[in-house]
Amino acid sequence: MHYTGQVYRPPLEAYTPLLEVTIGCSHNKCAFCTMYKQTPFSLAPKENIEADLKELSNYDSFIDRIYLLNGDPFVLSTDKLVDIANMIHSNLSNVKTITCYASFYNLKNKSVDELKKLKSLGYNELYIGVESGYDKVLSYLNKGANLDEYKEGLEKLKEASIEYHAIIMLGIAGRGNSKINAQKTAEFLNLYPPRSVFPMTTDVQKGSMLYEMRKNGLFEEATIREILEEQIELVENLQLDDNALYSSAHAVNMLSIRHRFKNKDKILEKLHYALNHAPDEILNSTNQRVAR
Question: What percent of the chain has pLDDT over 90?
Answer without folding.
Answer: 92
